[in-house]
């Protein structure tokens, strides 16, 4: 691994993103807008958004980062950019870490905007320490979404195929993460499956952030699982990345 190459790759990706205004708008605005929509949906049901909002604050950045990262990376492969880069001294891990760093920074900004709006404009009541815990949890989940998107892009040949991976990767985690039914109430088999899905730990961290009003050891362990999953996804992506364009 070469830190200089990794940082140069991250800088190139950020500059490219900066020129794509629609993608930037989708990354930074869409999660907050969707949270606002759900706040509006639950506006006549007191207290409901206070429960659902923090969970969505973790789930929506993950979904958006997964889609955008997988499609953007695949587009670069189809254009031949990745193939040309891999003919240089850059290795696959440098490339994936550079992309992960760039999109990870975007995920942090995205999560900060969404968390701020959730606790102000959308009215979720969180103490200062709880707010920081919510932001940190959302940021880690967003980084995991970016890493998962980079990993998924290795298995797709077209942008359409990358989007098709969304139901396979995201929806099972969404159903089993505890948002719809508490994980303790799931069937034993489903509960065992949910225990190995990173999004389950993300939702647990968001719930704990609201209930405990700040960072705790349990939240730290949950976020460590999500962060470790992000690193594992990047390593797996580097191991499976093809040098040839699709």
From TrEMBL:
The keyword Manganese does not apply. Pfam families: ABC2_membrane. It is found in: Cell membrane. This is Transport permease protein. InterPro entries: ABC-2_transporter_component, ABC2_TM, ABC2_TM_bact-type, ABC_2_transport. It comes from the Bacteria. Residues 11-244 form the ABC transmembrane type-2 domain. Coiled coil: none annotated. Belongs to the ABC-2 integral membrane protein family. It is a multi-pass membrane protein. The chain crosses the membrane at residues 24-43, 55-74, 95-119, 131-155. Its main location: membrane. The keyword Phosphoprotein does not apply. Keywords: Antibiotic resistance, Cell membrane, Membrane, Transmembrane, Transmembrane helix, Transport.
């Amino acid at each position: 691994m070469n830190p200089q190459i990794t940082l140069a790759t991250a800088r190139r990706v950020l500059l490219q993103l900066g020129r794509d205004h629609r993608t930037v708008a989708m990354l930074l605005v869409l999660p907050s807008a969707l949270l606002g929509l759900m706040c509006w949906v639950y506006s006549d049901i007191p207290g409901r958004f206070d429960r659902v909002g923090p969970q969505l604050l973790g789930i929506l950045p993950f979904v958006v980062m997964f889609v955008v990262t997988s499609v953007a990376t695949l587009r670069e492969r189809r254009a031949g950019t990745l193939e040309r880069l891999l003919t240089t001294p850059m290795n696959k891990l440098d490339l994936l870490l550079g992309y992960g760093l760039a999109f990870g920074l975007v995920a942090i900004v995205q999560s900060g905007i969404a968390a701020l709006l959730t606790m102000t404009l959308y009215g979720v009541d969180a103490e200062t320490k709880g707010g920081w815990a919510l932001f940190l949890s959302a940021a880690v989940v967003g980084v995991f979404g970016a890493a998962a998107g980079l990993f998924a892009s290795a298995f797709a040949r077209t942008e359409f195929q990358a989007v098709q991976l969304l139901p396979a990767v995201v929806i099972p985690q969404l159903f089993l993460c505890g948002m719809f039914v508490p994980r303790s109430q799931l069937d034993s088999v489903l509960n065992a499956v949910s225990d190995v899905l990173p999004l389950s730990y993300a939702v647990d961290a968001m719930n704990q952030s609201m209930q405990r009003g700040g960072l705790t050891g349990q939240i730290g362990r949950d976020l460590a699982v999500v962060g470790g999953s992000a690193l594992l996804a990047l390593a797996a992506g580097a191991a499976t990345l093809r040098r040839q364009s699709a």
